[in-house]
């Protein structure tokens, strides 16, 4: 997804491209070549729509290898001095010293709230008087191996990474509205292989986790129980699927293509009865994650927002409302212009959030130019790659 920030502060989406992510499994790169190819294809599609050339990207990081914890930091303030930015940085740095496993790399250190001399609930302590500054920081880390493979796949596609962003954070940036930034919201981004769980407290990420279950597991259940190929199960799920049997047409009988080429018939309510248990399991595990980290979900959370492609399943929001006894809505990207008809779906939550995150990064000179030969060969044929090599030789000479 390609976007730019307009003078009015509205995010204008000018390009979008989608390709099957055959080199990924549960958010993790399992085949470098296929992942790079998918990246090249999707970026090329987005470039053609936007009419611009992409060289630098913000990349989402997903997968169950993501780990998070809330850490405490402390900084002493000299008497007679007010709290300065440097004091805040010292407190955050101490919180960042949390003893993560050596195989983990820190992605984010997100301050939740500050405390000055015991006074809680302070969002910005700079300029205040006090002798003791404390901070609660939400730390997010990822395994170095999967991160290294993700970087390699992006770089092999001829792109330079400006930032790596945990997908639970990006999803929240994409779909939470101004009203929800004043309350505590549980965001569930149910993707293909994983589900991102994120609790935002007054717009700040307070808890996050990744569940190793997603929409692909629903599809696998359908394929296994109906004895049909995975691709047919995915088609049936998207076209006729529902999260609750009572929402399915009792008179509708689906014709499905079974393995071996024969046709079978399945009542629509029966399909919903296959889908519902897996969705209930995802909702239960998400509740368990929040309960263990923050306390009872119904007490701590004001609203639930569903995102990701699986949120499009008819009745998923009603099922979540039944299971959580909380207001639930399906989250779609907000506050954007441009290709709104294309991106206004819960499946685009993370991508819009990544673009929005990118607009907050400081402008950088192009210090490191990506190697683009592979993409140029893919898009413009062998001659483009030859011209790229000639340009490289000339640049090295001068």
UniProtKB/TrEMBL annotation:
Key words, A-Z: Cell cycle, Cell division, Cell membrane, Membrane
InterPro entries per UniProt: ATPase_NBD, Cell_div_FtsA, FtsA/MreB, SHS2_FtsA
Positions of the SHS2 domain: 1-175
Main location: membrane
Entry's Gene Ontology BP terms: cell division
Location in or out of the cell: Cell membrane
Family: Belongs to the FtsA/MreB family.
Functional summary from the UniProt entry: Cell division protein that is involved in the assembly of the Z ring. May serve as a membrane anchor for the Z ring.
Cross-referenced NCBIfam families: ftsA
Quaternary structure, from the entry: Self-interacts. Interacts with FtsZ.
UniProt protein name: Cell division protein FtsA
Protein source organism: Thermus aquaticus (strain ATCC BAA-2747 / Y51MC23)
Taxonomic path: Bacteria, Thermotogati, Deinococcota, Deinococci, Thermales
């Amino acid at each position: 997804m390609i976007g730019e920030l307009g003078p009015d502060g509205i995010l204008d989406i000018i390009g979008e491209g989608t390709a099957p992510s055959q080199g990924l499994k549960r958010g993790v790169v399992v085949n470098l070549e296929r992942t790079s190819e998918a990246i090249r294809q999707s970026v090329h599609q987005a470039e053609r729509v936007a009419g611009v050339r992409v060289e630098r990207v913000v990349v989402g990081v997903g997968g169950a290898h993501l780990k998070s914890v809330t850490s405490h930091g402390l900084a002493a303030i000299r008497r007679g001095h007010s709290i300065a930015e440097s004091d805040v940085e010292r407190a955050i740095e101490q919180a960042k010293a949390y003893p993560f496993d050596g195989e983990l790399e820190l992605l984010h250190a997100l301050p939740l709230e500050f405390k000055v001399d015991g006074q809680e609930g302070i969002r910005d302590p700079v300029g205040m008087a006090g002798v003791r500054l404390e901070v609660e920081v939400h730390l997010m880390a990822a395994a170095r191996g999967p991160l290294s493979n993700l970087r390699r796949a992006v770089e092999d596609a001829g792109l330079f990474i400006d930032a790596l962003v945990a997908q639970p954070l990006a999803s929240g940036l994409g779909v939470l509205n101004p009203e929800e930034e004043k309350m505590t919201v549980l965001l569930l981004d149910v993707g293909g292989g994983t589900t991102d769980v994120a609790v935002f407290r007054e717009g700040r990420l307070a808890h996050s986790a990744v569940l190793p279950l997603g929409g692909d597991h629903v599809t696998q259940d359908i394929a296994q129980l109906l004895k049909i190929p995975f691709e047919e199960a995915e088609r049936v799920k998207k076209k006729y699927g529902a999260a609750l049997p009572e929402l399915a047409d009792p008179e509708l009988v689906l014709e499905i293509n079974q393995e071996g080429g024969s046709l079978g018939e399945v009542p629509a309510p029966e399909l919903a009865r296959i889908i519902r248990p897996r969705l209930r399991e995802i909702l239960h595990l998400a509740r368990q994650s929040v309960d263990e980290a923050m306390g009872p979900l119904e007490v701590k959370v004001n609203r639930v927002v569903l995102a990701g492609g699986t949120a499009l399943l008819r009745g998923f929001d009603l099922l979540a409302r039944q299971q959580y006894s909380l207001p639930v809505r399906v989250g779609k990207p907000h506050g954007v212009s441009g290709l709104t008809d294309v991106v206004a779906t819960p499946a685009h939550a993370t991508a819009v959030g990544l673009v929005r995150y990118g607009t907050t990064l400081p402008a950088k000179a192009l210090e490191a130019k990506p190697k683009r030969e592979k993409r140029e060969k893919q898009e413009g044929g062998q001659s483009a790659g030859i011209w790229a090599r000639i340009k490289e030789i000339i640049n090295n000479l001068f």
